[in-house]
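[step 3/7] fold_predict: job queued, chain A
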Amino acid sequence: MDVLRQRAEHLWDALPAEVLDLAALFDGAGHEFALVGGPVRDAFLGRSSSDLDFATSARPNDTEALLRQWTRSTWDMGREFGTIGGRRGDLVVEITTFRADEYDGVTRKPVVAFGDSLDGDLARRDFTVNAMAVRLPSKEFVDLHGGLEDLGGGLLRTPVEAEVSFGDDPLRMMRAARFASQLGFEIEPVTFAAMSRLAERISMVSAERVRDELTKLLLGSHVRAGLAGLVDSGVAEHVLPELPALKLEVDEHHHHKDVYEHTLTVVEQAIDLETGPDGAVPAPDLILRLAALLHDIGKPPTKRHEPGGGVSFHHHEVVGAKMTRRRMKELRFDKDTIKAVSHLVELHLRFHGYVDARWSDSAVRRYVTDAGDQLERLHRLTRADVTTRNRRRAERLSFAYDDLEQRIADLREQEEIDSIRPDLDGNQIMEILGIGPGREVGMAYRHMLEVRMEHGPLPLERAREELLAWWKGQGS
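[step 4/7] structure written:
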């Protein structure tokens, strides 16, 4: 604990002079002013941030007036909730009037009620590790709810009775899972039990707020722990029911306890395959992580018991892609993300045909073309999907995918495999066939694209012969 205090005090001593100048303005005007929430928690964890959150007894109009003495760059988009923001150089601050949140009882959106004290403001925060503060400019540490002890123990616990806290805002149950993912902390047993009892109330929260918490969870460093928190508490049943449904399924090879455990492993392995900032798939990559999470959700509805006691999930990738689109639409993800994730889910089994029989060049071209701009993510999803404990099988799959990637690289050196087009464009087709714009041109173009896929780039005369032969077969 002493080490944590020393680490934090070092960071507080290193607070920019601009922050102390700002604190002095509020103090001089007779207002309380404190650094709160995440920046305080992160200081104990040895992290610093250029974005700082403050709480004050000043009302928004007074905050704005004082902030404008400190910087000309201010904004008030959060005024409704008592927050005024400002920037001075690279330093970004947000200052919020002490809060005593109330909720509308229907959508669970917060209804702003300003508070009068820092103590009351800290009591309404989600978890004790986020309910610590440092009064400024005095640098007095405030920890009324044992946040430092919980931080040292890696625990997530609510400052007030958990059922009261979650009853006020059920989204805090998802935030518990999110912080488990981001910080690697355990949800304290009493708090977790309250999550389980109140899990159904998460249905009152808007899809957008749920989506945002799920996104932050998936971008964390301990995603498995966060997802397990949602599933084991029962919260996932109401926000992502496809995930706990996987617990009912045993995979077709009987290599895993259930498809749910397989899925969590695939998510972890996909994360391990993300790259640095200059790589093909920089970490953290939301699209890859969502695809890994959802890639097998089509298994429960496609499960079939085969003669001899086997189990199959035929076309689960196609069904899963449809389910993915539906769930992500309900969670209000944007269209581009939905398209990319569902496309990866639909393609995640394509490679297995390569293991059974080495593909022709035309099949490799189709694989690349069908994957499009998701090829690098598909490489990683496909590799991550190998969770078998059979070392020989795992090595065989890895060798086969190494071979496929080398085939793709070899074809790239020979031709423009990533943007395949016919050897003849529309104008050339019309000139050779002596026709004008119309349906026939599109048909001819698609035929020549198939020729290009099958044979690779052709000399102009050979392409002309292929086109004329096809045209003759059309009866023209």
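[step 5/7] annotate
The radius of gyration is 29 Å.
The mean pLDDT is 88.
exit 0
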